[in-house]
Structures are given as C-alpha cells and as structure tokens.
Amino acid sequence: MAEEKVGFFKRLVNGLTKTRDSIVAGIDSIFSGYSNIDDDFYEEIEEILVMGDIGINTTTKIIDHLKERVAEEHITDPAECKQLLIESIKKQMDVGDTAYEFENRKSVVLVIGVNGVGKTTSVGKLAGLLKDQGKKVVLAAADTFRAAAGEQLTEWAHRAGVDIIGGQNGADPASIVYDAVAAAKARNADVLICDTAGRLHNKKNLMEELHKIYRILEKEYSEAYMETLVVLDGTTGQNALQQARQFAEVANVTGIILTKLDGTAKGGIAVAIQSELDIPVKYIGVGESIHDLQKFDADQFVNALFHTSEETA
User: Fold this and answer.
1) What is the DSSP secondary-structure string of 210-275?
2) Are the C-beta atoms of residues 293 and 129 closer than 8 Å to each other?
3) Model-level pTM?
4) Torsions phi, psi for 232 (to 5 deg)
5) What is the pLDDT of residue 250?
6) What whole-number distance in Å separates Cα of residue 184 and Cα of residue 111?
7) Side-chain half-sphere exposure of 293, counting CA atoms within 13 A
8) Which pLDDT does position 178 carry in this prediction?
9) Which residues have CB under 8 Å from 91's CB, separation 6+?
10) Taking the CB of the first residue and of the last residue of the chain, which one, N or C, has fewer CB atoms within 10 A?
C-alpha cells in the first residue's frame, strides 16, 4: 500500500505540472524578484492565484492569512513567505472533519454529475477502491438517461469484480435503485453505489428524480448511512465550482470527486471548492486506470502542487 501511495503522489506531481507552471512558477519569481514585502508584492501573488482558478474569495482569505503571519512573525524577506503561503493554502482547504464515515458502516453512496465529467468512470473506480479494502460492493446503474451509461458501468463492474443491478435505457431510475437495495440487502453488501443522472440543464426534473430516489432509500434502506458525492471535471475550473453550487441546491451533497486533474492548468479549483463551499473534496482522479482514483489529502495535494519533497500519507 505504501508503494501505491508513493506512486500516486508521483502521478499527482506529474498531473499537476500545468497547474504548477501557471501558479507556482509565477509565485517563485515574485519571491525571488522582490526585495521588500509591500502591497505590490501581495497584489502580484493575488493575481497569480486568481488566474490559477483558486478564485477571488479564496485568494483573499489566503492573502489575509499570509499578511497576518508575516506581521506576527515580523518577516521582512519575501523569500521567507513561500512556506507561509503553502501553509495558508492548506489552511483554506481544511473543512474540519472529513472522515470517510460511509466506509465504516453499511452505506449507500449516491453519485451525481453532468455528462462528460467522468461520473460513471468514477463510480467504477470507487467500487474498485472499496473492493480492494475488502468491502462487498453492489452497483446500481440508475443513470438511464444516457444511452451508453449502463454498458459502460457494466464494464467497470466486471473490471472491479463487483455486482451490478441495471435496467433498460429510459427505465425509471428510482425503480432500479429499489431493485438494487433489495439486492444489496440479500447479498449483505457493505456499500451500494448508485450511478444517477445529472441533468443540470433541467434542474426541476433532476430534483424530482433525486427526491424520489432519496424517498426510496429512506423507506427501504433506512439503516444505511447516506453519502452523496458530486463528480466534477477539474479541467473546467470555475465552471466546476458553479456546478457544485447548483448540485448542492438540489441534493444534500456530502463530498466531491474531482476528476481529470492530470494535464490541466486549473487544478487550483480544488482549493476553491473546499474553501468556498465548505464541501470536502473526498477523491481525486489523475488518470485512466482503476487505481488512479484515490482519497484526497490536502497536505499531499499542496505538497505535490509546490513539488515539495514531503509526501504525507
């Protein structure tokens, strides 16, 4: 497992190269280019963070915290600010207790997200991750809106070695969840993961569909712990943040899966999501293989972003 952790850290470092180029390289030049810590110094850092998709609100919090630390510690050399900046970014990503409670209890994980973000793929990878932990997993193919979703999820179920309950294209998603709950109970599953539709362009339909699913889960599987994860595409930057806000309006979102962080310059969005929405990023994806979805670790992410040698477990 330790080898896999180190391997993932290295993939994360590589995956964040473009984000690092857009944020860290510019910040390093500021640290080395300024002889004094003044308003211009802070403004340049602020501009680079905003351009790196960390967002204006989060950037303001980071800069304010940095200024406080500089004043408290009587720092005058800009070069000494780098570690303080790293710590300030980590502080913004700390949303308190982000325990993976559903892993320790009989649970249902509802996964939502718009088409194209890697939702169904993430469901398959999450199933593989939980199966590797010794969990008995059942998948519900309740995204009947997208024609290929069922076939795609079936392929991932085979790859992960887990059971799948599905239905015909266009079938009622709630009825599939109903059948999946019965199967999860009969097979004494630890985790039921439901792949559901995410039609944000028609929020009324989406809300009705999700509420119907929630009602079935409450009635038929009240003993199960409820987790709702939204899948977001890291390459879309601030659009991902907006999607998260919209999904939070129609569902009780408890966490984020952030995909496609490899090869994007917008990885800073992970910082903005945690800080602005107070919804934890719980998993990140940095590649196509089944092992390229891992638990999110804020320290590890920021260390990889700044390419520090520290690898936190």
Assistant:
1) HHHHHHHHHHH-TTSEEEEEEEEEGGGTHHHHHHHHHHHHHS---EEEEE--TT-S-TTHHHHHHH
2) yes
3) 0.87
4) -125, 145
5) 85
6) 17
7) 25
8) 96
9) 65
10) N
- Tell me the mean pLDDT per 10 residues along the chain, length 313: 60 81 82 88 91 86 93 90 89 71 93 89 94 96 84 92 87 93 97 87 81 95 95 87 88 91 77 84 83 84 75 43
Amino acid at 38: D
Residue listed under structure tokens 């039921």: 192
Burial class (CB in 10 A: 0-12, 13-18, 19+), 256: buried
Cα 150 from Cα 195, distance rounded (Å):
9
Sequence-distant (6+) residues with CB within 8 A of 40 are 34
Inter-residue long-range contacts of 37-45, CB under 8 Å, 24+ positions, other chains counted: 37/70, 37/75, 37/76, 37/77, 37/78, 37/81, 41/78, 42/66, 42/67, 45/85
User: Which ranges constitute the DSSP H helices of the chain?
Assistant: 2-15, 17-33, 39-51, 56-72, 81-92, 119-132, 149-160, 173-186, 203-220, 238-250, 269-277, 298-305
Nearest to 172 by CA among 139, 205, 200, 204: 205
Instruction: Say how far apart CA 128 and CA 290 lie, in whole Å.
Output: 7
| b/e sequence 56-79, b meaning 16+ C-beta within 10 Å | eebbebbbebbeebbeeeeeeebe
12, two tokens: 């994360």
Alpha-carbon distance of 112 to 299, in angstroms, equals 26
The residue type found at 196 is T
**Residue position matching structure tokens 């477990």:** 313
Instruction: Give the position of tokens 């800009």.
Output: 78
Q: Name every residue whose Cβ is closer than 8 Å to that of residue 217 and which is 6 or more positions away in sequence.
A: 108, 110, 177, 181, 224, 226
Beta-carbon contacts of 74 under 8 Å, excluding residues fewer than 6 positions away, are none
